[in-house]
Design a protein that fits this description.
about 15% strand, alpha/beta, Rossmann fold
Length: about 725
């Protein structure tokens, strides 16, 4: 009898520690089953399974197997093969999945054009590479493609032309694939030692919240009774169906805890996965995260933003949170508008890996009126997609009533959680706004100096610096982004303490203090701004309701502070002026709604989608071409202007220690995260000036440190003057 032929084992991975192999078939099946489970959260498990089974079939080539066996660094394209096959075999919708497979390492590609050749990196170009790839046909011995394909069309209900909906779907399936691929690979390479198990239930979280809230129930203060009414309303509505809600609660109404109560109840009622809080600025995210950690346990709450250092947590907790930051597999996430939306419109595996975990979640958008106007259309449509097609509930939470209803597609209805918002406004009204007209800097300074405790908020760093330099007496403070986050935090703690002690406290700040920063001044001066900004400024006035009425003075600074302001920032000011002429009380719900109505009308649809991001994705479905420029959109969708350079400040001993480490280590990642609180971002032209003057130490590409500590003022932050004495940094 002849010897039985030994079956060929095709290898996906080889483990360095013990040279153990993972078979390719095992990896494909594991990845497919994981991706199916992830995509089941939005009722498209078959699509997750398909991309999981086919993503690595290019590894069946003899060349790739030799690369694995011989530990070669030779490049072998293994991502394009699966894209080609699924595009051929799955008719019309195969192209949607081809994006996912082609981009599972390098990122979702642009669709390209018909004229693209096989040398192009677009999807159209890569789909023309079949004859240029190494022979991967051995996959047929182990994989039956037809058995892997989805049973029908994508289970989504598209809006309008359907292009945006389909591009969003591609990103979601892509997220399922790259997360599943990473997790299975990680599990094999670590021999299962990476512990990602999450043991939690929302019933226990609900009990913890009830226990925390019990301390407020017996209060006889009218304000706490009203907060309890709002809370009970949130608890009641939280038991309703999934959808899109608004929560309009004036400052002081207990919005944070009430929205948390809604979210926990809603998750329990609808068997959902997690709660995500999306907050406009990192400056306020920490205090929200702190509240949630105190109530729910710090091991259950992930703060995901640039200034958070996982090393500050206990070792085991910090390690798990760091892992969860990669894919958001944790019950509570507190993050920023930037992190949330730039992930939804990203194209790289690192950005997109987490977004499938946004499905079947409750998402609270705190200060929803802060969604950036130039990106409002794509942001609104992304929220609409999450609600309609991905089993999520979204809550637009605000002290005002932005006119977002008209921006949503007619298929999406908004339900206000709190009834009688006008009544709530009257109850919580703690301030009076007085328009002062034009004021020169000297006049502004004189009025500030006459006050015991006063806050002045202006629109740019130069004005803040000019006013601060003229303030007299003790207890004067400056706040701007020329100060690193750690410095600003230290100053805010001093300010709060002086306010509590009743000592003199005069603060000049840019608008960074507005959104949610917990300070309470009897008098606030606000340079002319959009009504939403004035509302936020008013939230820093008589916050604790100690006075019958706090006073907010709105003034127009000298023209020199406006002339360099871009038109996009001038428009809200002009619209606000019109509102102030028409309404006696500019903080009233009617005035605020009129402001947003006028602003959005003034901007037009082009102004709400400045980079044509929504339009481009919509047009991608024309004639079923499915040409979506994912990479291009990812580069365009930047909520924060990236024309800045981060510079590290040796602010304290910890910063100096981290800088020292940066000079002598090869692995920067953990150190760079820890050093985020010591960074000031400057414009590129400013950086060139500083570097040209020899003030910058270049540790490595993209890692810069201020050489001279004297350039960092302990009151106002980063300074730089040319030899002529002209201030560049102000």
């Amino acid at each position: 009898m002849g010897e039985r032929k030994k079956k060929t084992i095709y290898i996906a991975h080889r483990r360095e520690s013990d040279s153990e192999i993972q078979s390719l078939k095992t990896h494909l099946e594991n990845t497919a089953n994981l991706a199916r489970r992830f995509a089941d959260s939005f009722n498209n498990g078959d699509y997750g399974y398909a991309v999981g089974m086919l993503h690595d079939i290019g590894k069946y080539s003899a060349e790739f197997q030799n690369k694995i066996i011989n530990d070669s660094i030779a490049h072998v394209d293994h991502s394009t093969a699966g894209a080609i096959e699924i595009n051929k075999e799955f008719n019309l919708f195969g192209k949607l999945l081809a994006y996912c497979i082609a981009g599972h390492h390098g990122g979702l590609p642009d669709g390209g054009s018909k004229s693209d050749t096989a040398f192009e990196t677009t999807l159209r170009g890569r789909l023309k590479r079949e004859k240029k790839l190494y022979d991967y046909s051995n996959y047929k011995h182990e994989i039956d493609i037809k058995k892997c394909l989805p049973s029908g069309i994508p289970n989504i209900k598209p809006f309008n032309k359907g292009g945006f909906s389909l591009s969003f779907f591609i990103r979601m399936v892509y997220s399922c694939l790259v997360d599943a691929d990473f997790l299975d690979t990680e599990n094999f390479m670590s021999i299962g030692k990476v512990d990602r198990k999450a043991d939690y239930d929302f019933f226990s979280f609900n009990e913890k919240l009830k226990s925390h809230l019990a301390q407020f129930k017996d209060s006889k203060r009218k304000i706490n009774k009203k907060r309890t009414e709002i809370l009970n309303r949130c608890l009641s509505i939280g038991k309703g169906q999934k959808g899109l809600y608004t929560l309009t609660v004036p400052t002081g109404g207990g919005k944070t805890l009430s929205s948390l109560a809604f979210a926990i109840n809603h998750v329990i009622q609808n068997n959902m996965e997690r709660i995500i809080y999306v907050i406009p600025y990192t400056s306020i995210i920490e205090q929200t995260g702190k509240i949630f950690k105190e109530i729910l346990g710090k091991e259950n709450v992930l703060e995901h933003h640039s200034n958070f250092d996982f090393n500050d947590e206990e070792e085991v907790i910090g390690y798990k949170l760091k892992l969860s930051s990669e894919n958001w597999d944790i019950p509570f996430i507190v993050t920023t508008n930037v992190q949330f939306f730039e992930s939804l419109f990203g194209h790289t595996p690192s950005k997109c890996r987490k977004i499938h975990n946004i499905a079947n979640s409750v998402i609270i958008f705190d200060e929803a009126q802060m969604l950036p106007t130039p990106f409002l259309k794509p942001c609104v449509m992304a929220v609409a997609e999450l609600v309609r097609n991905y089993n999520s509930t979204c809550v637009l939470c605000s002290a005002t009533q932005p006119s977002l209803k008209e921006q949503f597609p007619k298929e999406i209805s908004l339900e206000e959680i709190c009834e009688n918002t006008d009544e709530l406004y009257d109850f919580f009204r703690r301030t009076q706004v007085i328009y002062k007209g034009e004021m020169e800097t000297a006049e502004t300074v004189a009025e500030l100096n006459r006050n015991h405790q006063v806050l002045c908020i202006v629109n740019n760093k130069k004005q803040a610096r000019d006013i601060f330099s003229e303030l007299k007496g003790e207890g004067k403070y400056h706040l701007s982004t020329r100060m690193c986050p750690k410095h600003r935090g230290d100053v805010l703690r001093e300010i709060r303490q002086r306010l509590r002690d009743g000592r003199p406290c005069k603060v000049v700040s840019t608008q960074l203090i507005e959104a949610g920063v917990d300070v309470d001044f009897p008098i606030v001066y606000r340079a002319m701004a959009g009504i939403d900004s004035i509302v936020q400024a008013a939230g820093r006035c008589n916050r604790e309701n100690k006075l019958e009425k706090g006073i907010v003075y709105v003034f127009e600074p000298e023209n020199k502070y406006f002339k360099h302001m871009p038109n996009s920032l001038k428009r809200p000011l002009e619209v606000a002026k019109g509102i102030m002429k028409r309404y006696e009380d500019i903080l009233s719900p009617e005035a605020i709604k009129a402001y947003f109505d006028d602003l959005y009308k003034f901007e037009g649809q082009e102004g709400l989608d400045v980079y044509n991001i929504y339009k481009a994705m919509e047009d991608g479905a024309e004639k079923c071409s499915f040409d979506f420029n994912f990479k291009q959109v990812s580069h365009q969708f930047k909520l924060i202007d990236e024309n800045t350079v981060p510079i590290i400040i040796g602010y304290d001993e910890k910063a100096e220690e981290l800088i020292h480490k940066l000079r002598y280590v090869n692995e920067y990642k953990s150190i760079l995260r820890a050093i985020q609180p010591y960074i000031v971002n400057v414009y590129e032209n400013e950086f060139k000036e500083m570097n040209g003057a020899g003030l910058i130490e270049i540790i490595n590409d993209g890692i810069f440190v201020v050489r001279d500590k004297k350039r960092y003022n302990e009151q106002t932050g980063l300074e730089f003057y040319t030899e002529s004495g002209v201030a560049i940094f102000v």
